[in-house]
Structure formats: C-alpha cells, structure tokens
C-alpha cells in the first residue's frame, strides 16, 4: 500500500507552494487596473469564509465516509476470510466490484439510484441531501479497499500463529480476537490513513453533482464576483493550499508510522 | 477395544494404529503403529521427509489422518464429535519455530490459554506461570517481549506456555532445529528435567546424543513407515535394519 505515499516528502514542498502563492498574488496585483475597484486578491479575501464553509462540508463528508467505510470494510473483510463459502463469496464479489470501478461511476450511480426522498411508514417524507448520497458514494470504494487491507493483513500473519493457538485450545473466533487481529491493527493503520487522504482529495468530485462543498463554492464565488479571468489563479491556488495544509501533515505522519512499523517487525 | 470410558493409566496413553496420511497424491504416512505408556519418553528419528513431523502432529489433531486410528487416553482424536478443547488441554506441543505471540509479554504468552480458554482464576494462573518460567530458567524475563529474547529463551517460553495448560503428554517437534548451537543445550536441559519428573514426552529430533540419553524407546522412521524400534542402546549400537544402519552411519 506504499504506492500511494508520495516519495521524498519534505518541508520543501510547502515552501514551494507558498512561493507560488506569493508569485501569483504579485501577478494578480500587477494586473490590477484603476477601473477595478477591488483586486482579485481582495475579492478572494471577501469570499474566503464562503469557501471555508464549503471546505467544512468536504471535511464532514470525508470523516463520515471514512467511518462508514471502516465499519463496513472491516465487516466485509471478516466475511472474506470466513471458512463458509456462503458468507465468503458475496463478500468477495462486493469487494472486487467496488475496488475495480471508477469512483466517479460509483458516485453517479449512487446519486441517481438513491431516491432524493424516502417516505416513512407513517407517511412522513425525509429528504436525502445530495451531500449524504455523495458521502455514501465516496465510502463504497474505500470500504472495498479496507476489506482487502483486512484480508491481506490476516493472511500476512504466519500460519504458525494459528497452529500454536489451535494447539493451546483456542477456538477460531478466540484466535482471531486475541491473537491475529491485534497483530493486524498495526499493519493496517498506515494504509488506512493513506485511504483517508485519498478519500478527502476525492470529495470535490461532489461539486459535479451540485454539492456546495469547497470547489463548488469557489466556482460560485468567482461567478458572483464577475467571473474575471484574473480570479482563476488566486482562487484555485487558495483551494489547493487548503487541501494541502490539511492532508500534508497526515501524509508525513503516515510515512513516519510506516517507517516505525517496518523497523519494529 | 480401549475407549475413553474404559481407559486406565496402565494402558497406552497414546496409541496409533495403522495411521495413513496423504497430501494429494503424496502418501506421507503409510501405516504407522506406535504406543506410548504414561511417563515414557519416546524419540522419533529418521531422515528428513520421512514423515516424522506429520506423525507427531496427528497426535494432537493438528494434521487430520486419512485412515487409521489415533487415540489419546482411549479417546479417538479424529472423531468428528470429539471435544477438541478436552484433547488440546491433555496434549501440549512445542514447535520448531517457537510460534510465541509477538504482541504479548512472556508472562502473558504463558497465561493466555489457561485464563481465556480454560477460564481459570487469573491469580492462580499467574502464580503457576511464574513458577514454570522459573523452572525453565527465565526468572526476570516475565515482562520481556518475545522479540527481545534469544531463540533458546523463546523456545523455553514456548515449553512453559504449553506446560501451563497442565497437559498429560508433551510433543516436541524438532524444537532445537532452528536454534543457534550455543542455545540448544539450555532447551535440552529443560526437556530432560521435564522427562525426569515423569512427564510423558514424544520427541521428533535430530539430536542423536540427546535421543540416546533421554529415551525409553526410539522409533526409526523412513519413507512413511516405522522401520524399527527399541531401547536406545539397541537402536544405536546394534541396529537390525540396513536403512537404520545407513542412516546412523551418516549422522553419528
């Protein structure tokens, strides 16, 4: 699962981003003409709270989707290692289906398959907001990958652990709970964190479907302020920086954990 | 016919009769007969690939047999209705690769099964675990993790872990084969002490000197069959079968 970790992560990268930020700001200021009452940067500053409000939704979607994906993924992973084929085969099917489908296709499918409102038996109608549907759409591929992470971690435990547990009269269930899983958790945390980072970076896809998250709000803000071409660089750079500041420390921490676990084993 | 109901301690505690085991097309055991009396120490020797490890693993049901009968205290091991828990607490096994639980301390390794599986009182188990660790010369290592110990120390923890289940029979599957030469002796000393206390032991071993010193009887296996058996002096000094003679001339 190291494929998704950026190589050579250092603090030079944020410095570079900051430099680009400053350069673009200067460029934006230079473009400013006397007829424009407010500069591009000034416009951005005015709209920042609106964009941050959108980003809060990205954060909420990522956390909820990850929680949902973790619970269902772990469950699916357990089903995948069941000795009972009736439990194992459907779990394998679901896992491989969602692991090998494009995220955008899953997202569209959920958006249009799940009704926008459901009627309760009592007759009350509940609206399902688009962002909730998008959250489910993001959770499904991550769920499938967590299922595989769990299966892989269990498989990576040497067979001798199962044998010695068995000969000490542990049942299969007890062996999983007390001996196999505690050894798996350590191995699962770094890939799990990688998937959270990926998931968060995918959340702006919800903008395509009209969810008012950070990307959607950024576009709406530029539109509302007059859609001037000089908005593009500062607004999009701000958005990228926002995600970067959130995800980059996570990447560094994941890398550190990976190194520590590699050294410990 | 000896069954679990009419078994008495003067009958074989372990009895294998006509045991066959195949892995696919490959027949590894081709009719094994073997009996162990309570308190006896049995060594199984023979060339690599002769089925020694498979044989010892059939005794606690880790390897299911294709045909034949394996009985421990009169109880058929491969009976599908068998209470595996009852069998496993009677028969302890120590493996070549120790197989300690790496996420648990030495003391936890030894205590786990009696507390979690047998639901015994934790304080009593701790008491017993500490004295067993002391017996295998590991006092002071209770809070260490397996990775911090040498191979010989880990193997002695594995012995203590098995003994903490208070088994009637102990199986040792090439327990010194993965060890550095300088730590082999400390493990052999622990086994010898155990045998001296009257524990029934079945060992698969390549340590010929040790087998000769410790065993009541030695079984020589080759190509899935028991070629000859007898007291160590007879097997090592006046082997009858040419295959035994050839094997011993190579290893001694």
TrEMBL record, chain A:
Q: Where are the transmembrane segments?
A: 54-79, 100-119, 193-211, 231-250
Q: Which residues are the signal sequence here? A: 1-30
Membrane topology designation: Multi-pass membrane protein
Its annotated compartments are: Cell inner membrane; Cell membrane
Q: Which residues form the ABC transmembrane type-1 domain?
A: 55-248
**Location, primary (coarse class):** membrane
The protein's matches in Gene3D superfamilies, at most eight in alphabetical order, are given as: MetI-like (1.10.3720.10)
Q: Which terms does the record give in the GO molecular function aspect?
A: transmembrane transporter activity
| Record's keyword terms, sorted | Amino-acid transport, Cell membrane, Membrane, Signal, Transmembrane, Transmembrane helix, Transport
Q: One Pfam family, please name it.
A: BPD_transp_1
Keyword Endoplasmic reticulum in annotation = no
Q: Which GO terms describe its biological process?
A: amino acid transport
| PANTHER family per the UniProt record, alphabetical | L-CYSTINE TRANSPORT SYSTEM PERMEASE PROTEIN TCYL, MEMBRANE COMPONENT OF AMINO ACID ABC TRANSPORTER
Q: What is this protein called?
A: Amino acid ABC transporter permease
Organism the protein comes from: Roseibium aggregatum
């Amino acid at each position: 699962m190291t494929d998704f970790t950026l190589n050579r992560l250092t603090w030079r990268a944020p410095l570079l981003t900051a430099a680009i930020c400053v350069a673009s700001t200067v460029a934006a200021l230079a473009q400013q003409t006397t007829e424009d009452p407010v500069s591009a940067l000034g416009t951005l500053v005015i709209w920042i709270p609106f964009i941050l409000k959108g980003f809060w939704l990205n954060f909420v979607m990522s956390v909820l989707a990850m929680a949902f994906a973790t619970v269902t993924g772990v469950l699916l992973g357990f089903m995948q290692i069941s000795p009972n084929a009736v439990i194992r085969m459907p779990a394998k099917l679901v896992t491989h289906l969602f692991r090998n489908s494009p995220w955008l296709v899953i997202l569209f499918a959920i958006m249009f398959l799940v009704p926008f409102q459901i009627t309760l038996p009592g007759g009350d109608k509940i609206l399902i907001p688009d962002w909730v549907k998008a959250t489910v759409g993001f959770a499904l591929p991550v769920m499938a990958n967590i299922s595989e992470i769990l299966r892989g971690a269990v498989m990576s435990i040497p067979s001798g652990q199962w044998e010695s547990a068995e000969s000490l009269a542990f049942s299969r269930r007890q062996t999983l709970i007390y001996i196999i899983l505690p050894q798996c958790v350590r191995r699962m945390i770094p890939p799990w964190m990688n998937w959270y980072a990926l998931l968060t970076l995918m959340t702006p896809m919800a903008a395509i479907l009209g969810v008012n998250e950070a990307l959607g709000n950024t576009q709406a803000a530029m539109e509302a302020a007059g859609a001037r071409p000089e908005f593009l660089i500062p607004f999009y750079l701000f958005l990228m920086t926002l995600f970067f500041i959130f995800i980059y420390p996570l990447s560094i921490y994941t890398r550190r954990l990976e190194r520590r676990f590699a050294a410990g084993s | 016919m000896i069954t679990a109901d009419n078994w008495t301690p003067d009958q074989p505690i372990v009895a294998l009769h006509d045991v066959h085991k195949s892995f696919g097309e490959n027949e590894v055991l081709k009719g094994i007969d073997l009996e162990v009396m309570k308190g006896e120490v049995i060594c199984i020797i023979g060339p690599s690939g002769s089925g020694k490890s498979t044989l010892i693993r059939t005794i606690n049901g880790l390897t299911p047999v294709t045909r034949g009968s394996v009985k421990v205290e009169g109880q058929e091991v491969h009976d599908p209705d068998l209470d595996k828990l009852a069998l496993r607490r009677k028969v302890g096994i120590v493996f070549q690769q120790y197989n300690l639980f790496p996420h648990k301390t030495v003391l936890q390794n030894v205590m786990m099964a009696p507390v979690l599986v047998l639901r015994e009182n934790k304080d009593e188990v701790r008491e017993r675990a500490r004295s067993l660790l002391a017996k295998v010369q590991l006092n002071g290592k209770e809070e260490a993790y397996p990775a911090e110990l040498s191979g010989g120390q880990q193997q002695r923890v594995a012995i203590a872990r098995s003994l903490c289940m208070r088994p009637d029979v102990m199986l040792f599957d090439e327990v010194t084969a993965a060890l550095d030469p300088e730590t082999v002796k400390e493990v052999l000393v622990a086994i010898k002490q155990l045998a001296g206390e009257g524990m029934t032991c079945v060992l698969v071993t390549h340590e010929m000197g040790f087998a000769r010193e410790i065993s009541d009887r030695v079984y020589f296996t080759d190509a899935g069959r028991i070629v000859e058996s007898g007291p160590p002096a007879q097997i090592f000094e006046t082997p009858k079968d040419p295959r035994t003679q050839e094997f011993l001339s190579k290893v001694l």
